[in-house]
Design a protein that fits this description.
Blueprint (H helix, E strand, L loop, with lengths): L2 E5 L7 H8 L8 E4 L5 H12 L2 H12 L6 E2 L12 H11 L4 E4 L9 E3 L15 E5 L2 H6 L2 H4 L4 E5 L8 H16 L5 E8 L4 H9 L2 H4 L4 E8 L8 E4 L2 E5 L14 E6 L2 H10 L8 E3 L4
Parallel strand pairs: 1-2, 1-4, 2-3, 4-5, 7-8, 8-9
Antiparallel strand pairs: 6-12, 7-10, 9-13, 10-11, 11-12
Helix pairs in contact: 2-3
């Protein structure tokens, strides 16, 4: 659902090329730019200093400051051999961990995943993306919608008023999320479960106590935060880089107890910012499971 593209710094080194391409990216549009190499923004500015006029350079520099997060995604990919041309470095990294596409100013060699800026078109299969889609309610598809965001998140908020980690239909998606973090060797990650205060405290505690301590991988903590039931009806997976809303819930339908499909929407920047603020962590959460070393 969310695609990650490598974008050659020289391809956006003038204001005209910069604004035409950048507006096609953003979490809500289903496309993000990979921060590759790690000093990608500095590389754009160096290219702009050669190609852009002074007033254009200032505009590009100002816009670059606001790209982090909802447009530019830093997955801490290795930058490769700095002595090699950008495309050579990208193709080496692409072989290790594929991008969804690679965008260059001019074609240097044939490659099925490489597009030039002149070839960019929303209807082109390689570039086509969407911020909204129907998914099957399986653990894999629920989590895969936000897998790119999870891969670089420090805080992950699971918002579902009925979340019960001990019930298989919620446990499976949570386990899929935790497996993703473990396989990527992520540490220092905090997961917040925001649910309704709609049961006796002892019952809510039982939803997590028997399950969470055995599930958490090293370096990942989890806390549970309660909200008045009437104030919380929506379902989200949120990270500091963006998030998605789930029309039905964060539980799967492997047992056939509900609908087979769900409608998932990647949040627009303003909507995301409002929902992120709406679920602040409590100073004293109802439950907390610190990250193990």
């Amino acid at each position: 659902m969310l695609k990650e593209f490598a974008l050659e710094p020289e391809a956006i080194a003038t204001w005209a090329s910069f604004k035409d391409l950048i507006e096609k990216f953003g979490v809500s549009k289903g496309r993000v730019i990979a921060c590759f190499p790690r000093k990608w923004r500095q590389a754009v500015l160096r290219a702009a200093q050669v190609q852009a006029r002074d007033v254009e350079l200032v505009r590009i520099e100002e816009k670059l400051r606001r790209l982090e997060g909802l447009v530019l995604l830093n997955r801490e990919r290795p930058s490769g051999d700095g002595a090699l041309p950008w495309l050579d470095r990208v193709l080496v990294e692409h072989a290790r961990l594929p991008f969804d596409g690679i965008i260059v100013r001019e074609r240097q060699r044939p490659h099925p995943e490489v597009l030039t800026t002149d070839e960019i078109d929303d209807d082109l299969p390689l570039f086509h993306a969407t911020g909204q889609k129907h998914i099957r309610r399986t653990a894999d598809e629920i989590v895969d919608c936000v897998a790119l965001l999870v891969s670089c998140a420090r805080t992950i908020k699971l918002v579902d008023p009925h979340f019960k980690a001990n019930e298989p239909r919620w446990k499976r998606p949570l386990l899929r999320l935790l497996t993703l973090l473990r396989d990527q060797h992520r540490t220092g990650v905090s997961i917040e479960v925001h649910r309704a205060n709609n049961a006796r405290p002892a019952n809510i505690r039982s939803y997590f106590e028997s399950t969470i301590p055995r599930m958490l991988p090293p370096g990942v903590g989890l806390s549970v935060h309660l909200h008045p039931e009437q104030a919380r009806h929506n379902r989200f997976i949120l990270t500091e880089r963006g998030g998605a809303s789930y029309h039905t819930g964060l539980d799967d339908n492997e047992e056939g107890r509900s609908t087979d499909e769900d409608l998932v929407t990647l949040l627009e920047p303003a909507t995301f910012a409002g929902e992120w603020r709406a679920y602040p962590p409590s100073d004293e959460p109802f439950l907390a499971y610190p990250a193990s070393s």
